[in-house]
């Protein structure tokens, strides 16, 4: 179905142009272009099998031979670069003869079952046989062949049928060049050569199921199981992945209203045709039997749910909100939106709160992940966003990754980063744990792994800056020209203090001062240096301080304002950036403008025709505290599952139980919905129009490929609720909402669906000055004018290890699962990660008599949970690690209420704990099991609830 043109070999970029003729047609192309690519540009298609434009040419199939006047023989057009003045012929009787002979050999060892083959009509081998005019095959099947080779069906999403393999090696090269996993090889020689996943099944091999090999395979050898089951698609719609902040573009390939395949878009600005296992394969949750598609209400969380019409549900929700506001006051209600929602959905939720509820009690899940990024970058650079596009990494000479695990959290970007690292860029990793990029990715090894103790980020960033200043490695001219002088001088006095030296700080970080000094030198003097960071930076009591420390480091070394450098927050969820941009924080209107700013207030009051509040509203933790105190009584929660994803679960559920009306809008009966009184069924990303904004500020279209199973797109549900509350909204399409956003938000002024359709995607700011968007920010000056160095004093967290709680628990993600797992747990991705495990260093395990697979109780000051142990040296002694993708794991039962001083982002990454071998579940888990079984039954659903 993917009818995007394949030029055969990759595009080359050069200032020099070469002129040639191909079949008598003159063509001019950049130097380095292959003859095949040039032919394709001039409209001539040369037959090919082993070449495709996402991979470097290989020259093995000999189908693409051409004749070049004055040259001997028949060079392969895929591996032959153009030369000035050459005259190429692609169609001659001799070439036709050779090509037919080549095809005949391929076909003679290939099953002749085209008519019943799953990819009939979508197979390059079939196309080529037709293109070279092959009608008969002179060789029979009597001799040796591969037709009885056994299929490998171990991967849940695709099948490998070696009987159809033509050993073109495209899969092997895709795994190496595009994905960077090197899981496949061609084993043997000549007739015996075959594709091997390291002599293992695909499922048990190094394969991470990214799908690049399946995408590259020109035959039905590597094929999606959905295509085997449903056949080839009929039409496709381009949309955006709903999982992580990379924001990959996909073609949703359809048969009627059924998705049969998601194919990565070659023109996708963030992914350039690549994908990971989630976006490529894990979309089955959208039609999972657990989905709730009828609205439900109930008086108490101890009652079964009653299925009702949309009218009844919306009117009940509105009347409850009105009753509560009348009884407890205007500020007793609020809403939480989610980074999983589209920009348009988030925008209408904050508008509903501000205009229909009359307060500013709106927050978003970015509170618990990247709110320190927004704050820290705004203070230092003037804009709450990353500074680059992903492609910028291809110009980096030094890459510093702090508190992020790109191969698991941002896999498609990680593949691009790995490509640059294989080309020779230096790598510094600052992380308490040995992520795969440290030394577990083929051909990649970190030059420095600063394996710090959790909670000592600011100590290490200060130590790095101390070395750069005291050893005079800084970029004086950049600082002089681009940064505030007074702020820099004060900061310099602070950072040069001996207590910030790596030697002094090693008491906190546990990192050898020598390594810090060496890493600082490479970062400052190794060429273009870029910083990529994740939640390991933000989810700390000093999250905002660390973000400012990172910005200081970039300014100090002049690494900002051009390609290859910059400060790059790797956003977790698909629309974290967008949710923040859209004004879903209690203190900001869209575009990060404070609610007390008179001009902004006047602008929105006029546009929305309503009086607005100029005081910030409640953040999520405040809403929960005030609910327990009895003054916050109703919550509208769209697409967010605070009962699973927020810290200190008991506190969250106690707060939810204290409210009189909890309205949840979601696909599934999530953990929060178990405490709800109104359930409004949501629509999946396949069922609605809108936009997501990825970690590069790239706005991409989400397009409806099927009708909403619940009847409405999510923004329509919010609109109905607003209208029922008496505040009129009358958008007729998601594009109307974007038009309003553009009218009211300077950085979005030039954005429209029309322009998005034309350009594919746009990186904001997009306005009169930057009508096509802004890939790199702060080029000539910072958004705030001069960059501001801010003093970042290291203050150790109050969460300390003691004799009772001697270990530090830190948390993270895994490739196959996504966040709270509501989506991925309902896909075949569970094949890779059925339960959350706790990683323990062998030393700590031995002291406690724990072995891999044992149940261990993890006890913190907040609570206790039980997980299975995995003994590994990835973690350092004194540190344990777990993921949080399964609700029954209760990872947040043990995390504490500590949070970032500036933004309240929870300190998920540091919890003092003790672990011990146990034989039964924790009390919380037993209660959870009982409560959730009852709630699932109340909703008329059945589910095998699995705890271990
Ligand atoms: S599996 Fe497909 S891509 Fe790989 S060598 Fe065989 S035919 Fe080529
Ligand atoms: S799915 Fe991806 S990782 Fe697995 S073998 Fe294919 S290219 Fe390699
Ligand atoms: S990298 Fe992220 S956006 Fe891309 S396919 Fe994977 S989950 Fe989706
Ligand atoms: S396409 Fe050129 S040798 Fe195969």
TrEMBL record:
User: What SUPFAM superfamilies is this protein classified in?
Assistant: 2Fe-2S ferredoxin-like (SSF54292), 4Fe-4S ferredoxins (SSF54862), ADC-like (SSF50692), Formate dehydrogenase/DMSO reductase, domains 1-3 (SSF53706)
Q: What GO CC annotations are associated with the protein?
A: membrane; oxidoreductase complex
Q: Which positions fall inside the 4Fe-4S Mo/W bis-MGD-type domain?
A: 234-290
Matching InterPro entries, A to Z? 2Fe-2S_ferredoxin-like_sf, 2Fe-2S_ferredoxin-type, 4Fe4S_Fe-S-bd, 4Fe4S_Fe_S_CS, Asp_de-COase-like_dom_sf, Formate_Dh-H_N, Formate_DH_asu, MoPterin_dinucl-bd_dom
Q: Which GO terms describe its biological process?
A: formate metabolic process; respiratory electron transport chain
Is Iron-sulfur included in the keywords of this UniProt record?
yes
Where does the record place the 4Fe-4S His(Cys)3-ligated-type domain?
Answer: 94-133
Sequence ranges assigned to domain 2Fe-2S ferredoxin-type in this UniProt record: 16-94
Pfam families documented for this protein: Fer2_4, Fer4_7, Molybdop_Fe4S4, Molybdopterin, Molydop_binding, NADH-G_4Fe-4S_3
Where does the chain cross the membrane?
Answer: none
The record's keywords, sorted A to Z, are: 2Fe-2S, 4Fe-4S, Iron, Iron-sulfur, Metal-binding, Oxidoreductase, Repeat
- The coiled-coil segments of this chain are none
4Fe-4S ferredoxin-type domain residues: 156-187, 198-227
GO molecular function, one example? formate dehydrogenase (NAD+) activity
Q: Give yes or no: UniProt keyword Iron-sulfur.
A: yes
NCBIfam families noted in UniProt:
Fdh-alpha
Q: Which PANTHER family match?
A: FORMATE DEHYDROGENASE H, RESPIRATORY NITRATE REDUCTASE
What protein family does this chain belong to? In the C-terminal section; belongs to the prokaryotic molybdopterin-containing oxidoreductase family. Belongs to the complex I 75 kDa subunit family.
**What is the protein name for this chain?**
Formate dehydrogenase subunit alpha
Report the source organism.
Answer: Candidatus Methylopumilus universalis
